Queue: 4 jobs
Job 1
Amino acid sequence: MPIIYSHNPSAPSPTRGTPFGPSTLFGLSIALVSAIASADPSAKSAAQAQMQEVVVVSSRFPVPMNEVVGSVVSISSDNIDARMVNDLSDLLATSVGISVNRRQAYGRSYNDGIAIRGLGGKRVNILVDGVRVADAYTGYGRDVVDMDLLKRVEILKGPSSALYGSDGLAGVVSYMTKDPSDLVQDGNFFASATTLYESASQRVKAGLVTAMTGDKMDWLFQVTQHDLNETNLHDDATLQPNPMSADRTSAFSKIKYALTEDSDLTLTLDVQRSEGDWDLQSDVGTSFGRTIVNTSESLGVDKIERDRFSLSYDFEQLSAWFDRGGANLFYQSTNQRQITREQVQTFGNGIQAAPTKMTAEYSDYQFNQSIGGLSLELFKTIETSSGMRHQLVYGAEWEEIDVQRPRYKTSTDAMTAVVSSNFGGDVYPNKTFPDTKTQRSAVYVNNRIGLTDRTTLVVGLRYDHHRLKPSTDALFDNSNVAGNQLAHIKDGSLSKKFGLLFNLNDDLTAYAQYAEGFRSPDYESANLTFTNFAYRYSVAPNPNLESEQSAGYELGLRGEHNDLSWSMALYHTDYDDFIETALTGSTPQGISIYQYANLSDVTIKGAEFEITQRFPDNWNAKFAANRTYGDSAGEALTTIDPSEAILSLQWRSDDSNLGVLGVATLVASGPDGLAPNCGRGGCNALLELPGRVTYDIFVDYRFSDNLSTKIGVSNLTDVKYWDWDSVNGKTANDSNLDLFLETGREVKAMLKYAF
């Protein structure tokens, strides 16, 4: 993810402007707290008093949310269902401080990745059932998990390498898939069929899930089919997205077998297949360069195959070393293909003359990655004679990652049928980085120490060893025409985490935390290699890359009283040795050389606030807001998302048959006073965005124990807007700007039958 700076240090604050600034945010927070605190909520019921949300991601040990040291977001399956979530953007739409940016490459549009508190891309760890997901390369996003499979999503904000290793610079997103016991109990059988329609992409989804629990064996099987088209832009858009039609099928099964009363085996199989057909109209037209080229047709096909397998052994046994534990063997492979077919005419004698060449171009760009490994995790609770309590989790992990990026491209002359694989000096097939094997191993320990009834100390240590081993072949040699030396990396990193939790009284808790993160150089940043002769530049490996580092500090305060709960946090994180591209030299022939290098040091700091109130008559209200700043060398980071506030109101009838959820999202204006972007074509003003307010509403109704329905409307008032994370750095006169508009008013409807 590139870091973009404002070159005007005296520019106004990035969050100044409508609909709200920092003072308005603070005022909204205080007003809401005052209103809720002055209400007369009924005392908690016995059931409510016993309900404690438990999360795992913060310390790998199950901990009640109000005892977590640090900031954690928890998204339940009920919330996912209520909002009819279908992709990554939907999933995180109601979580402040977390965003998903949209990108375009090769004419495709996709959700690129997750940013936490202003930092994202490969600097956020994403896990499924404790195992990292495959990378997303150019043209593909991070929508790699079917949302229907999830029972819970937990997000740890801030550096997380002391718990989860490399890539935990900004935080971690942990997906947890459903178990059979989440759907059915006591030896019963469960089955349900669901169908959904979404207007924005004309998505039609159909799903079937079955589950059964027994004395020895529980099992679950789920299959989901998606048929969808390109996502519509707002009706006022002057451009239309490239037409696309796609289908995606996911099949998921989980079988749990009890070996003894205290141990069991769980086999998980997760298969996804998708294919999309694109009419890449944005490629069609005439380009004027050294020669005049007209593209009359451009068609694309995208294919993704993902297979995930894991075998877990979980056990309980009281011993001197552990009370319970688990071992996990896992393997995941992801194969992606981007095929493009173009009809091209070249006018070597000028546009007024007939074409001098007519060709059919075919490209097949692939990205294939496999991840395999095993892990061991043990838990132990120790009560000392002095009254101290230790909740220990410790373990070891090993994984091996293999990645390849072969690219095939040919040009067939329409008159002579001569096939060529040379494009302006670029010879195909090639690989822009060598086949790479990355080995990672780690040992870790995390201890929650109850010093007194009111004080808890958290200590976490993790040592990671990583090794990057590239291997060359003829395809890579076609890209490495300069014979660059490759980076072979062998390094280690010790990450630390310290936290202190103190209960000021029965209703008020304070905490402080220090946590570290790092990201080791990957196959791309270490060894990306190619030369573009047409534009006279090249990218070379860098054997001297160091790991990126982060150190985060956080102070928090939480309160609970009857049906009211609230929290606030102040955070400050320093990021060192950012890996970015830089011009590092040139060849005697005048070709510019770029490399990934350790460049910027960045500071990101801010504040977050959240309050939840349960009212009588089945009402529930939640308000959350954040304010984040970022700078490097005294210059403001323009990649930081504007301040945001989210208010949600939920009501459910006494018989639980009818429910209504309303969500209001307030986003401040983007950075203003930005210095213009200047290049060979002159200087152009950068895009500045006003603030916005959008409303979503979701209604669900249960006709009977078997039949239920949901309907939702997003962007109810049809606001035209861009998300800042998707357009930062673009100029105000960018001709393709409307292609990044968000959709207007969108309707979703779902019908579910359980039997």
Note: The chain is about 5% helix and 55% strand.
Job 2
Amino acid sequence: MDDPIRTEVMKHRLVSVAEEMGARLQRAAFSSNIKERCDFSCAVFDETGNLVAQAAHIPVHLGAMPLSVQGCLETLTFAPGDVAMVNDPYRGGTHLPDITVVSPIFVNGHTESTLLGFVANRAHHADVGGMSAGSMPLSQEIFQEGFIIPPVKLMVNGQKNEDVWRLLMANVRTPDERVGDLQAQLAANHIGMERMQELAKRFGVQTLLADMDALLNYSERMTCQLLGQLPIGCYAFEDALDGDGFAEKPAVIKVAVTIERERATVDFSGTDAQRAGSINAVYPVTLSSVAYVFRCVLGLDIPANSGCLRPIHIIAPEGTLVNARHPSAVAAGNVETSQRIVDVLLGALAQACPERIPAASQGTMNNLTIGGWDARHGRPFAYYETIGGGMGAGPHSHGVSGRHSHMTNTLNTPVEALEYAYPFRILRYALREGSGGKGRQQGGNGLIRTYEFLQSAEVTLLCDRRVTQPFGLEAGKSGQPGRNRLKQNGVEKDLPGKCSILIQKDDVLTIESPGGGGFGSH
């Protein structure tokens, strides 16, 4: 029988490994997107690729990472000193800028090395090639979005696989930055391997393997217990994305959550077919979103690992927005569609357990990429940012203002760091007062961020909730939709949520992010 005290202690030991990996990755990274915004995630896996422990990083990364590790296991044979990488969304990735680095953990036995498990981290690289700087284009097929990396070995027997490094760096706009960030990812995995080997030496390999299995089983039991507390029934909800950047027609996502004893079925049947634009989500993104929502309903004390999903069956019809077919464009599926999947799941579960579910948060990451030739330094540049907004109000609290929510968990790029590194400046950065939905509990306010350009550049926006609004609950009002504005030659005009434009010197771009929904009658 599992020892609950030992399980709790081991949970914290393994989480601390992932947290230390993240600290090293942040310190060693070159790009502001990783060093300043902390757009990365780290986790520990067992020998079959199950996620055993994770740091408190980014939900859309962590829920999908087991499929990346398992994809590497299916394709590659690992030996001590090997390290793999992958970014292919159709091989367990999310979108191409997210590069996952996977390292096996070997421990020496009496006669040969034993595979204990894996450590892995996923980091968003500010550019991986493709049709526009920042690799988040207004695309219509995945080949336009950047360099596709199937599971390959980045390191072999402790040595760089030079051919792979050269091939990757020849296909990106900022190779020096990419080398620095990849080396930081390797350093993070290295410290993770060391810490796991230390645990194996202290407790024994078989004991540690049993402890990891006990953590998975514990999370499964607690998930079953939670589901058993919910009223049996089928709870349906639907919401929509504004469009895909090529057609204004809303893209509808439907879900039916069926609770039956200690099991749940999450069925996305009826969701719209995949679109020409990049709002298509691959299955790992949908899996991440489902894992995140049920993990939130579970509570903070339950270990976040693959065991949480064992009692949950997901139906995501192939060829739809929630399970796109290759070679569909998917850059925005990871960042925008994941947020709407969360919204529909929360809307459904609010019918089953209204005391646990908040109103909709801003429902977008407000993705902004800026790139071009930096005349100051005589080299290309690529900048990527997501912008926070209003969080939805809950049954007992107001929504928080100006925060990232749900599937993202990053910081902003500090103004000082941004203006030092890139050829533009921030004219305004403030809360968007009054944008949160009214209610007994008020929705959080969005943000206003205004950029002035010091030279020409290419800008791509992948935003949502510019037409649809974050919904309120229990008679609470919806949050205000976002707005994008461009001022050129003294004339200001509205921009669509998803667009790619050429910016000239002295142009001014303003992004106003949505507010969160309100909760309860005012």
Note: The first helix runs from residue 4 to 28.
Job 3
Amino acid sequence: MNTILPLAMLLATTIRPIWAQDQFSGEWSPLHHEDYNERIPGPDLGDFAGLPINDSARLFAESWNASRLTLQEHQCRVHVSPYIYHGPLHLRIWEEKDPYTQELIAIKNYISTYEQTRTIWMDGRPHPPDYAAHTFMGFSTGKWEGNILTVDTTHIKQGWARRNGLPESDQATMTEHFLRHGNIMTHVTILSDPVYLTQPLIRTDDFLLDEKELGGWLWPCEYVEEILNRPRGDVPNYLPGQNPFLYEYADNHHLPHAAVMGGASTMYPEYRNVLGTAKIESAPALEAVRASSAENSELHIMPVQGNVYMLVGAGGNITVQVGSMGVLLVDSGFAQLSGKVIAAIRTLSDKPIHYIINTHVHPDHVGGNENLVKTSGGSAREVELVNTPGETAAHSVQIIAHQNVFDRMSVPPAGQKAYPESAWPTDTYLGVEKEVYFNGEAIQMFHPPAAHTDGDTIAFFRRSDVISAGDIFVTDGYPIIDLKNGGSLQGEINGLNQILDLAIPAHHEEGGTYIIPGHGRLCDEFDVLEYRDMVTIVRDRIQAMIKRGLTLDQIKAARPTLDYDPRYDKPGGFWTASMFVEAAYKSLTQTK
């Protein structure tokens, strides 16, 4: 008796926390009494009150034109996980357990809005690396803190902080707390965004447990052509200072303009004391947040889909296709990292490299050509012809690029050293397209004239549904318009639009075709879309200022990239916002 009692007490103290963890499984409906106008009718244009935004977020929202949602790629965009619970939805929650141990693996959420299934991993797994793809729901891990389920989420796509144009960047992270009180569940969201917020943004939502199954669980979306004959690449936006609706909400409700323009001070009750004299809050300048960059001495391989992989860390990203016929690469990285590149490829295949496609001439993309071809018997330029070109190709490496890449590698500008002949392309094309068939897959190569350079190639793996974009698309900075090597701003935009034409999303503007950028993380169509919009909007602003007769210095002083600088500027780095603006200006004003 005396032995059993202490044992029972020990078991009770050990098991009680597990019993105390509230179960959230069931079907829930949102209670909209809180923030009703924002959550159901929708927030007014120009109402940014109560949000700790900075000047960049404010300019982004001021420039936002609701007509942008008529663009096909924007029509099915999903509200990201920090915002989607705030709107009209039905929510189903259930647990996923190991069938043998019955240990909890994950807590699943099905959100009827845009048919989103969200997974909260409960098994202790780590978050993905920085170069992994982002999704609208992000990657979430959870833990119990007493009766509270606490969730941390990373890898979230760009979305809304408020759906009247106020942005949330793809660098944002979120912490959530789920609490249950009988049939009421409270959901607390803490959003941190180093790009657009000066303080964490905290929201709460309440849900009511439903006793019977709800209807309206499906929200399918297929985009349509809403506006006929829209100019190709058009991105509706308002130039700074020209949004006619910016102060409509404030004027209709007789509010000071400063009161609705947001900023951390508008979050607190004390702000009422200064309403009469308030000025639009200029948030402290944020240090630019460099997008996740894997340019270091450690190489990583990430499966993309099909038989295509992304190799990160060798300079520019390298695309690797493997199969029974051998290895095909898009780009070769820096020369000094070739040993590590070869070792990484050997973890995927022991077969020789047969093709290297060069996307452009820069050394972080072609520098490894010479070293890599040596591992497979040399380039086709060096191997002695055996019977037929096909027989020769079986024992050599073909380096494919646009003719302009060959010209610049073989005859460099004055004062620069030529690449070794073994690194030169062995198979070039002059037009806008070339194709090869390798490892059971068609690979199409497209040349957008005068984009990042004048020799760019976009490689499209048709069966795997993967696009290798080169430096036409990057995620870690503004696009580099290499004027000396024939690049142009409009060609850059045309190249991004060509990638959008090739890419097809799988469901609600996510997944489907994956895009490997020249630098940065794995992406899909939506990521390219937001980048294309950014470059186009900046072009429109610079063009408007050129028409007004502003000089380059005046345009730089006007900061036409302000709303994107915290995300893409690299002060003191290789390519800054100022350099991008200058290249864009020169490109737009150069003699045709």
Note: The chain has two domains: 21-44+71-195+202-209, 300-589.
Job 4
Amino acid sequence: MTQMSYVRTNMLPEQKPPVTQAGPIRWLRENMFSNIPNTILSLLAIWFIYSLLGAVLPWIFHSSWNAGSLRECRQSIQAAYGPDASGACWAVIRERYNQLLFGFYPSHLYWRPILAFALMLVAIAPILFAEVPRKVLWFSGLYPFIAFWLFWGGTVFLPISILLGFVIAYVVAITLPRFVGSLGAVILAILLPIIWWATLAGPAVNLMNRTLAGVLTPSYIAKMEREKSRNEAIISSKNSDPAQVDAAKGLIKQADRRISDAENIGALEAKLGKLKAAAKEKLASLPASVKAYRSLAAVPDTVSPADRAKLAAALLAVTNYNKAKTKLRHVYAEVGRIGFQPVESSKFGGFMLSVVIGVTGIALSLPLGILLALGRQSPLIIVKTLSVGFIEFIRGVPLITLLFVASTLLNYFLPPGTTFDIILRVMIMVTLFSSAYMAEVIRGGLAALPRGQYEAADALGLDYWKAMRLIIMPQALKISIPSIVGIFIGLFKDTTLVSIIGLMDPLGLSNAIRADSNWNGIVWELYGFIAFMFFVFCFSMSRYSAYLERKLQTGH
């Protein structure tokens, strides 16, 4: 009798899963067609996307890249795709992309912002990626001063003087706690750099420029003479177009004026001394009733015409002295300059301006927001009150209001004759605005930590700052990453608001381009290009945020 086995004695070979349970078909069944409602919604979405792309893609690709005006674009599109065809006029981007990227920055100096952006990638690499050697952080600390020098140019002593303020803060913070305590050292580390920048940095830079001007005057005059010769050759050349000739004539006049200023520095100094003496004499002769006034508009009607005339003469003398002093400083800075050709802030524009303001606000608002968040939780009533007042005030005011304050009202609080760069004012206001929201995000991260983390830091014997740096703040920042990146993205997009106060960001430049008769009527092409560039920046920040969250995921 044959014995039958009910247990398999050999293994079956592996088989592929059914087609409907693997690969793209499985994904479609689970995510798009799992039931009747999902199937209906998926079909509607597919139809909508098909209709949208069917209308947009022909407009994008049936386009013209080589044209000098909107009319030429339309004619070339109709000639290529039919009399009723319509398409995008990308020729405006091809013709004006330099302007959209760099604004009115001098074209022969484009290498400076390009180099600054390339160095920015090197500077942020050790901050964003742990794999980069930590020694590169030294360059990250120096980069803001290098970037400032590259963008604005001028003498190298200005960024060095700004850097010295931070060096003073660092030295005070590490040397004085044993003498004045931690709180006293922090206060002095904040006050002493401010005193240096407000009172001593400017005169120190002017002194260096003045000293070098006396040494470099002959070589500077020779350089201006060579520049005149080059421009005279352009004028005499038959191959030069009218625009080049006009530019060369303007540069020759500028060189003549600079040569005259360099040759007459002594006369300018003597004139400044006379104007200063005259201003002091007229101010001293003012009656007591009008000495306190700094403008004729503020003088009441009760003041006699004679006293009003004396005040007007004194104010005019002070104005003439300030103008002469400013001119002499410019001559010193130009003749004694060791650095790059200076570029005015009015030349900044396009995406370069948006990136400068956005990156500055992002880089500064995070540490300032951390300090405000810690200050809001501080047991010191003064620190807590100041932090709460600042956060609530800034969060209760629209950014556009702060920008208007930066562009107009801030000048009323500055001493007469003081100049404060408009882009620097905007960067300060944008940073303060973002830091208030950043403080609340970080405070939420601090509140989400269990109390045991604080107790663990105390058990290890760490002081307040070490506990925050090593235990509390890394965990709070990890919790807050999505919200922090959201604020960064919003801040970068909000840089477009500067067009309202006259700065030429990409949107402001798009209006200027459309005002040209050749491109009057262009809308979607410009806005589409600007939207695409903003999307690239913002999507990159979003992807880095997702990468960082995955990297810091601890699984508990």
Note: The CA atoms of residues 514 and 520 lie 5 Å apart.
